[in-house]
Predict the 3D structure of the following.
Amino acid sequence: MIDRRFVTGLAAAFMLALAAAPILAQDAKPPECKDQPGGCQDAPKPESAPEAKQDPAKPETPPEAKPETAPEGKKKKAKGPLGLPALKTLKEALTLSRDQVKQVKEIYESYEEKIKEAETKAKENTDKKAARKEIKPLRDEIAGKLRELCSEEQKPKLDELLAPPKKKKEDAQ
């Protein structure tokens, strides 16, 4: 068990370090600037120095750590089984009730074995059209069950989610 005093002391030391960081950064000047009056204020700033002051409580994440986001208006949809919408996508898009979420989860779980078999067969099959023909009846069956549990207001939204993505037509100009 960790002692409460230890955690409190550790937190206080961390807060003190955060508070002292901007002050220490101001005092850290290159050796050539210490001899000049005014301390190198006229000298050009190094390129690595940030222009704006950063809030010490919110350290900036390096660019490689920032998550990549899709371009504006193009959100990536999570895929569920057999290309059907994922539970999270259905829940958000259709504003499903708790009971409906539970039913969707049960539907996906009840078809789990059949889905695995169909996906395995599709991967083994080199003909993509034949693979789609094997998967389509199962996908349609699951989509029908999803449609049954939706209300009349939710059905058009579900149909939108289940519709195949539209292919972009490029203008030949």
About this structure: The radius of gyration is 29 Å. DSSP finds seven helices and no strands in the chain. Helices lie at 4-27, 31-34, 87-94, 98-110, 112-124, 128-149, 154-162.
